[in-house]
């Protein structure tokens, strides 16, 4: 009789999720939120972090218990051809729109970093970034490369947290910002904060990563600790960026258009090195996410179609190529990088309710999850996240069209 060997806790797949949302989108979105609205939107960030923990825990639990990715599970849930086609179409469109926009933001973020590092060079940086991402993906050697870039992103994150402590934020205003309020013109910023934290493609990434690391239901507590700690640290970093931006920019009418502008908030810690530091950080965050986003889309769509997901299959490669080059087209569209990154986070926020709804449906299947299916509190909180996300999205669309 085989005995299940219990693993000791170690930081696992959720750290990839945290590293994925601490990208150029989060740095830009949190900087703009703090610069334009001070601490007023911290409640939206807090909601986003809690929602991220909740949905990622569901995704991780699904991967652990079923030992399948979210795309594979979705494929097998609908026997009616009409329903199956409808679900596949909705999810695939959501993934391609969301990931295409997100990829555009990743490429634009990496380009911002290169422009700041080499200000005199007139070069189409997005093409170079896509070429690097393409070569890494086509060779399948992205893991070592990704770890090195994530280390640089974490170093940038430590700088933000340290600056947050050194600048001695207005603690009263900070806690006041935890009370729900939306200043004039703030609705799109709220959706962007949600979209940059609760990234829909991370739901697919997390389930697939968990089934590769843990294989027994007894590991559920390790999965939950991993999710709580990693997402919590990511949330702390995001809060630090909002707070440092509020201290450096709010009320001073400084227009943020480049990495150099964003680096001002790190000057109390890094002085004249701040611009170099954030440039390297944005480049690392952008290009690492430019690799993981197309890969995650490929895992999701290939899983739903029942195609191989070993990275060597031509169909699998075509999926990530489509997302990668969609991002390139968006980054070359003529819009400013800051605008593209901002749009990507809003697109993610609007698409979130759809994918969260499908996840909630699956997590209530007792035939699939047995005693590990959602509890009433899971369903209540998950439903609340979807309702709030729908409300925020509707408000944003209303104000954008009015």
Largest sheet: none
| Share in helix | over 70%
SSE string:
HHHHHHHHHHHHHHHHHH
Average of pLDDT: 83
Q: Compute the number of helices.
A: 18
Bin the strand percentage.
under 5%
Q: Termini, distance in Å?
A: 67 Å
Total strands: the figure is 0
- Which class of secondary structure composition applies to the elements? mainly alpha
User: What shape does the CA trace take?
Assistant: globular
Rg estimate, integer Å: 20 Å
Taking pLDDT < 50 over at least 5 consecutive residues as the criterion, the unreliable ranges are 1-7
Properties at a glance:
single chain, 402 residues, mainly alpha, 18 helices
Structural account:
The protein is mainly α. Helices cover 76% and strands 0% of the residues. It has 18 helices and no strands. Helix 1 runs parallel beside helix 11, helix 3 packs across helix 10 and helix 5 crosses helix 15. The radius of gyration is 20 Å and the shape is globular. The N and C termini lie far apart (67 Å). The N terminus is likely disordered.
